[in-house]
Amino acid sequence: MLGACSSDSSDSSSTTTTDPAAATTTTVVNTSSLDGVEVSKDIAVKPEVKFDPSFAEPDTAKVDSRVIAEGTGETVADGQRVTLDYTVVSGVDGSELQTTWGQKPEVVPLDSNLQEGIKNALVGQKVGARVLATSYAQEIWVLFVFDIRSAVTVPTRASGEPVTPPPGLPTVTEEGGAPKITLTGEPAPTTLVIQPLIKGTGPEVQAGQTATVQYVGVKWSDGSVFDSSWERGEPVDFPLDPGSVIPGFSEGLVGQTVGSRVMLIIPPDKGYGAQGNQQAGISGTETLVFVIDILAAA
């Protein structure tokens, strides 16, 4: 998502019909900056963008932005997760390249992975704002219209009431500020095990949401770590949709509360299946153990 705003580019597209009566636009000529771009202001309706192609920013390729409609909610801060509707149009011919309208808003971390100019266009705005911004992607200028739906500050770890797991499960301790999983030598379970370790006080995670998590995963066969967001130093966003993550991961998180730490023991049929995951060194018979801190869900 928003690949044009980071190191990679995205090339998906979709269209949504719009009620022309709900939008206010004018015809503009000689466009050379955002001052010459007209955007409808009603954030309840997909934006209409009009300008005289080709849009041409200065040779310095600086990212520019302009507020189309002021928000009335809380102020967006650096490092937060913002939920956005957005539309991307080509600066060459004004055609639509990508949009969330008619789908669902997307959750975007305001971190170092986001292009600095785009991040600066969003930080300091209020929830409910519509913001126009530029970006240089796929060797052309593109125009983004962002509608800021919500913004949350994501905690760094789980917080809540500790839960004592039943005997026989792997033990979880802290090492260097991250959870460490130690196996007990018991046979691997053949069904999915969902064991809360800390019960958070936030809302329940729903199917189809995007969960922001910190996690570590080990292989049951030898206890070795095969993946860890803690080692990378930042949380990860996972869409809890079929096919986006392994089945046991999404099944184990849906219904848990935000703020919780959960242990998942995932047998092969709920993991990578008979094919395994060669890149991660996971065979088709491997059982996986995850400890996951659920930091946010939207």
Structural summary, described in words:
- With 298 residues, the chain is mainly β.
- It folds into 2 domains: 3-152, Chitinase A, domain 3 (Roll); 161-297, Roll (Chitinase A, domain 3).
- It contains 3 helices and 17 strands.
- The strands form 4 sheets. Strands 9, 12, 13, 14, 15, 16 and 17 form a 7-stranded antiparallel sheet that branches. Strands 3, 4, 5, 6, 7 and 8 form a 6-stranded antiparallel sheet that branches.
- The longest helix is centred in the middle third of the chain and has 7 residues, at 116-122.
- The radius of gyration is 22 Å and the shape is elongated.
- It starts with 37 loop residues before the first strand and ends with a strand.
- Residues 7-32 have low confidence and may be disordered.
Produce the secondary structure layout.
Layout: E1 38-39, E2 49-50, E3 65-69, E4 81-90, E5 96-99, E6 106-109, H1 116-122, E7 130-137, E8 140-152, E9 161-162, E10 171-175, E11 178-182, E12 193-199, E13 210-219, E14 225-228, H2 229-232, E15 236-239, H3 247-253, E16 261-266, E17 288-297
Antiparallel strand pairs: 1-2, 3-7, 4-5, 4-6, 4-8, 7-8, 9-12, 10-11, 12-16, 13-14, 13-15, 13-17, 16-17
